[in-house]
Amino acid sequence: MTVIGSSGTPRSSAQTESRDIALEARDLGHAYGGREVLAGVDFQVRRGTFACLVGPSGVGKTTLLRCLSGLQSSTSGSVYVGGDIVNAPMPGVALVFQDYSRSLMPWSSVLHNVMLPLRANGISKQIARAKATRALALVGLDDVAGQMYPWQLSGGMQQRVAIARALAYEPSLLLMDEPFASVDAYTRADLEDLMLTLQRELALTVVLVTHDIDEAVYLSDQVIALNGRPAQVADIVEVPLGSARDQVTTKSTAEFAELRARVHGLVRGSRGKSS
């Protein structure tokens, strides 16, 4: 099938559809020495959606995320962001790490921590400050928090700073490596809801690694389940829970329970596809 573009030139339907894909892994593989960790990983993430990567501990989720970000080269296959092949960290892609206490500099104020990547990319101090201040406001931190130091904040607030630093970069694609694993359950729920709000309001594409199946189903438009050694995609589960999600109501529905059970089975080793 051929579609005529605005310029009058023919355009295939495949090319049209590819514009809706923010991130794609094609036959991706990675090995450490002679040990193969990932093999034949294939998936696509639609633009403006929230995807979660889940799998057993040690399956290679963080390795996959590093390959997706360009921080680590894959040993086979390819990664594409917006149709462009990834060979190194790319503009428009931001990464939030699990260990916020190690990613924030304790000797710099919160505001300057958020400004750091902007200044490193040549953005003027005035503009960087404005972007950082706006990003802190987006995650619920005010000017007072901006003048404090990371070690003066709770764990949940420190992770908000790490998220703000990524948002200040104004990414279109946000990659997150188990960002809520080190906080208590109440704070975790609060941060999950914050990310849902930010993803929708900023029209972000988010890919989040988690070992928590409830979290994956609650946050996602799609859950990408990994399993095997080396790891492959066991299945991609679409999550039609709508945009109005609530920690209590949503997680109490039969649909949530069914989705959770399905993902749980995939993580434990059932590779059956949906009908």
Describe the structure.
By secondary structure, this protein is α/β, with parallel strands linked by helices. It has a domain at 17-89 and 204-275: P-loop containing nucleotide triphosphate hydrolases (Rossmann fold). 37% of the residues lie in helices and 25% in strands. It has a six-stranded mixed beta sheet, with helices on both faces. β9 (173-177), α8 and β10 (205-209) form a beta-alpha-beta unit. α4 crosses α5. The model is unreliable at 1-16 and 271-275 (pLDDT under 50).
- The run of helices and strands is EEHEEEHEEEHHHHHEHEHEEH
Chain-averaged pLDDT: 87
Share of residues in strands: 25-35%
Note the overall shape: globular
The CATH class of the domain at 17-89 and 204-275 turns out to be Alpha Beta
Number of strands: 12
Poorly predicted spans: 1-16, 271-275
Number of helices: 10
First-residue to last-residue Cα separation: 27 Å
- CATH level 4 superfamily of the domain at 17-89 and 204-275: P-loop containing nucleotide triphosphate hydrolases
- The helix content is 25-40%
Characteristic terms for this protein:
10 helices; Rossmann fold; single chain; disordered C terminus; 4-stranded antiparallel β-sheet; alpha/beta; about 280 residues; disordered N terminus; globular
Helix-strand blueprint:
Elements: E1 2-4, E2 10-12, H1 13-18, E3 21-32, E4 35-46, E5 50-54, H2 61-69, E6 76-81, E7 84-85, E8 93-96, H3 100-103, H4 110-120, H5 125-138, H6 143-147, H7 155-168, E9 173-177, H8 185-201, E10 205-209, H9 213-219, E11 222-227, E12 232-238, H10 254-268
Parallel strand pairs: 5-10, 5-11, 8-9, 9-10
Antiparallel strand pairs: 1-2, 3-4, 3-6, 6-7, 11-12
Helix pairs in contact: 4-5, 4-7, 5-7, 9-10
